[in-house]
Amino acid sequence: MAVRELTITGGEPFARTDILDIIGLCLDNGLRLTVLTSGIVDSALLGHVKQSDVELRLSLDGASEETHDYIRGKGNLKEVLRIAQELRSHSTIRLSAHFTVNRLNLREICRIPSLLDRMEVRELVVSVIKPAGRAKEHPELLIEPELLPLARERIATISSNRRIRWRRYGDKNWSALACPAAFTKCGITPEGNITPCVFLGDGFVGGSIREYSLEHLWRHDDKCRRLRNLSINPDCLGCARLGTHNGGCRARALYHSGSIEDRDPYCCAIRQNSMNESLGVHDG
Ligand code: SF4
Ligand code: SF4
Questions:
Q1: Is 263 exposed, middle or buried (0-12, 13-18, 19+ CB in 10 A)?
Q2: Ligand 1 atom 2: residue of nearest CA
Q3: At residue 244, what are phi and psi to the nearest 5 degrees?
Q4: pLDDT above 90 covers what percent of the chain?
Q5: Helix, strand, coil abundance in the chain, percent, nearest 5
Q6: CB 41 within 8 A of CB 14
Q7: H helices present in 11-92, as ranges
Q8: Cβ atoms of residues 125 and 153 within 8 Å
Q9: Cα distance between residue 45 and residue 72, in whole Å
């Protein structure tokens, strides 16, 4: 299958007692590996990971204890800072942070660079919360489509900070149809089932790698095939963003309309915002 890259996320990957075996196996097979962690890392485990060629990415959900700990649990931001400083003393490890923008931390985005300074972290990945997993049970965290342009504006302020190398958490190589799910990426659930994208939820969980090879599932599983066979939404035909965004994110479309084939309202909100800007239309 020529898989080049693997991201291990959670829950908390370091809660697994066999995480070092998994990391070792990935590295032995030449995978570029990223492990996301909430900072609940056992120091003994850390002693082994520091020698590995792994990107360890610390999750940030706010620049203040109030917002970050609201999601991660009391005292977690302090723990993240402690772990970052501890890891920094090991030069071999590649340390980054993953900041997920949500409704509560929107106004804290400008404080993220100074938080990273304290952590001595220079690499940042930024994503916007998706209506999936636990976020679905906390609608107060979700960013409405209309707020997305504002979120993007604030995220862009990070780019003016020269000390930070940042990138959007993005799907490389958007496919010819809609998104890379089942074209250039897939997910594996903690139970070992394939899914075209982990953000699509339970309805898109396919067969198990305990029964079939990953290659077999990738090629033949119904859920993957379904994503590959989606047609372009007729409402997107003729849209200027069709060439680059092709209807947007399928997970967002599914959440907002119940149909995986619908338009992504966030994609439309960005289009509307650029149209307003080019026409000189402003709110208020
Ligand atoms: S469904 Fe959304 S998050 Fe998942 S791969 Fe497609 S664009 Fe990315
Ligand atoms: S902006 Fe809306 S209509 Fe245009 S491609 Fe995106 S989802 Fe489709």
A1: buried
A2: 249
A3: -105, -25
A4: 45
A5: 45, 15, 40
A6: yes
A7: 19-28, 43-49, 65-72, 76-88
A8: no
A9: 21
Q: What separation in Å is there between the alpha carbon of 251 and the centre of ligand 2?
A: 14
List phi, psi (to 5°) of 170. Answer: -135, 160
Predicted confidence (pLDDT) per residue in 210-219, tens digit: 999 999 999 9
DSSP codes, 188-236: E-TTSBEES-GGG-GGG---BTTTS-HHHHHHH-HHHHHHHTPPPPGGG
Answer whether 7's CB lies under 8 Å from 125's CB: no
CA triplet 85, 124, 267: central angle to 5 degrees?
A: 150
3-state secondary structure of 72: helix
Q: Give the number of other Cβ atoms within 10 Å of residue 80's Cβ.
A: 25
Q: Do strands 187-188 and 194-195 pair parallel, antiparallel, or not at all (unpaired)? A: antiparallel
pLDDT at 132: 82
Most confident by average pLDDT, 69-73, 181-185, 205-209, 237-241: 205-209
- Are 36 and 60 in contact by the 8 Å Cβ rule? The answer is no
Q: Is the CB of 268 under 6 A from ligand 2?
A: yes
DSSP string, 100-116: EE-TTTGGGGGGHHHHH
Give the count of alpha carbons within 13 A of 262, CB side only: 13
Q: 182 φ, ψ to 5°? A: 70, 5
Angle at 75 between CA 129 and CA 22, to 5 degrees: 65
**Which residue in the block uniquely carries the two structure tokens 């209309």?**
146
Q: Is 119 in the pocket of ligand 1 (CB under 6 A)?
A: no
Residue 256 beta carbon below 6 angstroms from any ligand 2 atom: no
pLDDT at 283: 38
Over residues 106-159, the pLDDT tens digits come to: 999 999 999 999 998 999 999 889 888 778 888 899 999 888 888 888 888 887
pTM of the model: 0.86
